[in-house]
């Protein structure tokens, strides 16, 4: 409340608020911190008078010993980075096998089997294409790519939460978030966003302040979710690795992906700092966190919570949005106007703007069509590339999403579509900086109840992505 609202209040209330504002301006430092510090000081004074302590110093407990290590200025951040790096490595490496098995079951075997079955039933071509090549194929890819990483990452994240380590992460990062005008608990929603941005948005419920919770929601998209990691690794392998000698290609690719993820974290702090000084002005609330004791993780409860309450909940929302997306992708590629598909017309229309950004029309259209799930961006890109270039691909029918296992064949197809190293690098940046998927946008709307803030969450990263890609393209042309 401020003085501009005083005339609408009773004179006594207005006078009281004015006096409080005057006294507050005389205080130095953070008022919330001073109040919390005073409360704990008084509590400590009462305890010291009411409780007697043994003369001999108490033996250090396990909790205090471990806290001295994981929250220390020397070891706190290295341990935190190493722990989450191991989690991401386990998630990415461990998800390869089950993702491959699901893709083989649902896509490589399930898709041809369903086509033969509907052919035997006498379905017309358009119905078989719309339902099997469109709806089913998009949904199968979302499930096969999205389910294994979430089923691995969320249980590990929940185990750390159950063990009591995540509050220590928030404690370590509180100073950085406070400098950006945000809340230390945003660290936990940021980390959750690396598994899924929709789950990261839901996890912001732990932040009590509505302003700071909204801030965490608006910036969660800067965490690379599991659906965007395949695009990052593929582009880094095909294009960034090719810029250096062969012995260093894998290292360069890994460094590029790490750099993009680090850029997302840096933008979280930068955008938070900018928002808290513009549309979300306010003072950071006090972060009085009583660190809970460490406790043995409850494995079965953790599996139930992470798999049912998080993994299946988010996956179901993604599947719901993937169904109409699959139909739309198939229709755009198979409905012809003037002798050419709607998708080909749209690609040519978007090409001038996309090339100006160091991308191409195929990429922009793929992100429009694949908004329900980032997992189907690459299959959509390949389908559109084949449509535009007219390059036949073994095993891929016209207007059908597909993937290529051989990196050399895949790169050759993209090069025939006019791709360059700049295209691959800017796709990595645009994969980080574009509007959230429809599942995340719907979750943001449900959590905020505001169409305005949902639009902010969609347009803010997209605007940054356009600016960053444009600048990189100009610099590339200048120095290349």
Query: What is the percentage of strand-forming residues?
Result: under 5%
Largest sheet: 2 strands, antiparallel
- Helix percentage range: over 70%
Please report the total strand number as a whole number: 2
Which series of helices and strands comes N to C? HHHHHHHHHHHHEEHHHHHHH
Form type: globular
Number of helices: 19
Low-confidence stretches: 1-6
* Widest sheet, order of strands: 1-2
| Span of the ends, CA to CA | 55 Å
Structural class, by secondary structure, is: mainly alpha
Mean pLDDT: 84
CA-based gyration radius:
26 Å
In words, what does this structure look like?
- The protein has 19 helices and two strands.
- It has 480 residues and is mainly alpha-helical.
- The chain has a two-stranded antiparallel ribbon with strand order 1-2.
- Helix 4 (76-120) packs antiparallel against helix 5 and helix 10 (229-240) crosses helix 11.
Topology, pairings included?
Elements: H1 11-26, H2 31-50, H3 62-70, H4 76-120, H5 125-163, H6 166-179, H7 186-193, H8 197-203, H9 210-219, H10 229-240, H11 249-275, H12 299-334, E1 336-337, E2 340-341, H13 342-356, H14 361-369, H15 377-389, H16 407-416, H17 421-432, H18 438-448, H19 451-479
Antiparallel strand pairs: 1-2
